[in-house]
Amino acid sequence: MRLLVAEDHLSLARSLADGLREEGYAVDLAFDGQEAGHLALSNPYDGIILDIMLPKVDGWSVLKMIRRNKTNMPVLCLTARDAVEDRVKGLDLGADDYLLKPFSWEEFLARVRAMIRRGHGQGSSVLQIADLEIDSAKKSVVRAGKSVALSAREFSLLEYLAHRQGQVVSRTDIWEHLYDQHDETISNVVDVYIGYLRSKVDKGFDVKLIHTRRGQGYVLGVES
């Protein structure tokens, strides 16, 4: 999952980005509203963490621009201002959620997960595909009752495919949602990680869940 963190407090922005990357997210950073707006309209983010008090262009204006152009892109607003009218304004302008500074890391992560679920039309943190269970809150995967150990990047890929279960997901689409704008990973990395997932999720099972559509991409689901 790929996120944009728009925050002008440099140490906080980098701390949030580092923590999110440790959780397996790809993260782009913007330190002012002008850059945030440009990145938001240029990339298919799974969610945006948007500080309201940004220089150059404030967060309210960035939020309005996002809603004019990308109505379904989920946005979590951050602010140190605790006035009720500010929270109401943010929600009325189209924010999916609102978090006051300072906040706990665990609450922040929970709200990010909820934001991503809403963006993909999922109500629960648990995704079920046949006998495969993916828990985005616990970062756990179970198939046929047995735990499957995945790296953070493997989990992120499987979770993204699960959000798109039954749909063909192109390599480009996967790349854009798993890697940030500065990543210089080799071009065949998607195929490599699909191979890792197959060896951990499908190996030893008669029913395969990860399928290749030659020239198109990959599908997670049960073949009819």
Q: Would you spell out the secondary-structure blueprint of this structure?
A:
Blueprint: E1 2-6, H1 10-22, E2 26-30, H2 33-42, E3 47-51, H3 59-69, E4 75-79, H4 84-92, E5 97-100, H5 105-119, E6 126-129, E7 132-135, E8 140-143, E9 146-148, H6 152-163, H7 171-178, H8 189-202, E10 210-213, E11 217-220
Parallel strand pairs: 1-2, 1-3, 3-4, 4-5
Antiparallel strand pairs: 6-7, 7-8, 8-9, 10-11
Helix pairs in contact: 2-3, 6-8
Write up this protein:
The chain is of the alpha/beta class and 224 residues long. It has two domains: 2-119, 3-Layer(aba) Sandwich (Rossmann fold), CATH 3.40.50; 126-220, Arc Repressor Mutant, subunit A (Orthogonal Bundle). It contains eight helices and eleven strands. It has helices at 10-22, 33-42, 59-69, 84-92, 105-119, 152-163, 171-178, 189-202, and strands at residues 2-6, 26-30, 47-51, 75-79, 97-100, 126-129, 132-135, 140-143, 146-148, 210-213, 217-220. A five-stranded parallel sheet has the order 2-1-3-4-5, sandwiched between helices. It has a four-stranded antiparallel sheet with strand order 6-7-8-9, covered by helices on one side. It has a two-stranded antiparallel ribbon with strand order 10-11. Strand 1, helix 1 and strand 2 (26-30) form a beta-alpha-beta unit. Helix 2 packs parallel to helix 3 (59-69) and helix 6 packs across helix 8 (189-202). The model has no long low-confidence stretch (mean pLDDT 90).
